[in-house]
């Protein structure tokens, strides 16, 4: 008989966090996330996201064996900004059994209903600013850093319990040989000539937190009208940036300014999943040495953030950011990358990806249901 258990103790939280090892035991493409990092996500005292949010974690067991897990999440900032009573499900993992899935989703939906929510959206882990969606297409390779991965049968499970498509997200593969350099160079020359005072600069580590505040303002402005968007608070952005500080490369973290006013940014991060894949979720002294030895051998990277504030769009600033990051990345030894994720109906971004020679090679789907 299936039993639903609410996670309440530290040991149960650890069971929740370690359950994916059962699902992906023989999957060659899965990248185990750091156990310590996942713990930090649920740390309500340290993670500022929980100052305006709350969660409830559920496990489904049979004879003490865990068969599935899910989180119910309520983000009050999302509700206020989007003006809709939407809750989320995330951190979903489940054996291939519709009955287990039904128990998980019944539990999370019931909790959200009690909390007054009218709709459920997901998966988000934990918010729309984090990992989002189930992998829909592209199961033949490992995910890039901070991108989701799941068994293909999750799609059947989630639709089997009544969820429908809310939105698809795209990932484009870029290679050194696919980029139309000459065309891009001509666009950049025209843009630079047309826009006096336009400059691109690398991240200045010495002024890290000043630069990060520029990044937060650009992010919140550039993404404001995007589907599912919720603004970062200063505390959240600083918290996440501090964790990423030692992972960022100045040469692939770029800002566009016009007369010293920040108007755009692009952040591309080495694909550390290449290393994480072999650490098995641990980061002790031995694993840390492995990480430090191998971090400079990574030759792929993910363009994870690119945005220009509204009043400066369609001026070619995007092309200038791409041109600079591509040149810098090649000099650093990167030969391939991923541009992700992009909303399926963000025409400007999908055209930019195609203009760069990008190949649409992975799709992700976010699901929804009325409560």
Task: Describe the structure concisely.
The protein has 371 residues and is α+β, with helices and mostly antiparallel strands.
Q: How does the helix and strand content classify structurally?
A: alpha+beta
Distance between the termini: 26 Å
What would CATH call the class of the largest domain?
Answer: Alpha Beta
Order of helices and strands: EHHHEEHEHEEEEHEHEHHEEHHEHEHE
CATH superfamily of the largest domain: Gcn5-related N-acetyltransferase (GNAT)
* Discrete helix count: 13
Percent of residues in helices: 25-40%
How many discrete structural domains? 2
Spans where pLDDT lies below 50 across 5 or more residues: none
Architecture (CATH level 2) name of the largest domain: 3-Layer(aba) Sandwich
- Which descriptor suits the 3D outline? globular
Mean pLDDT: 95
Question: Any overview of this molecule?
Answer:
It is a single chain. The chain has 13 helices and 15 strands. With 371 residues, the chain is an alpha+beta fold. It has two domains: 166 residues, Gcn5-related N-acetyltransferase (GNAT) (Aminopeptidase, 3-Layer(aba) Sandwich); 190 residues, Gcn5-related N-acetyltransferase (GNAT) (Aminopeptidase, 3-Layer(aba) Sandwich). Strands 1, 2, 3, 4, 5, 8, 9, 10, 11, 12, 13, 14 and 15 form a 13-stranded mixed beta sheet that branches. α7 packs across α12 and α8 crosses α9. The relative contact order is 0.16.
Provide the fold topology.
Elements: E1 3-6, H1 10-18, H2 20-23, H3 35-41, E2 53-62, E3 65-75, H4 76-82, E4 86-94, H5 98-114, E5 119-122, E6 124-125, E7 131-132, E8 134-137, H6 153-160, E9 164-175, H7 181-194, E10 198-202, H8 208-222, H9 234-244, E11 253-258, E12 261-270, H10 273-276, H11 285-294, E13 300-308, H12 317-331, E14 336-343, H13 347-355, E15 359-370
Parallel strand pairs: 4-5, 13-14
Antiparallel strand pairs: 1-2, 2-3, 3-4, 5-15, 6-7, 8-15, 9-14, 9-15, 10-11, 11-12, 12-13
Helix pairs in contact: 7-12, 8-9
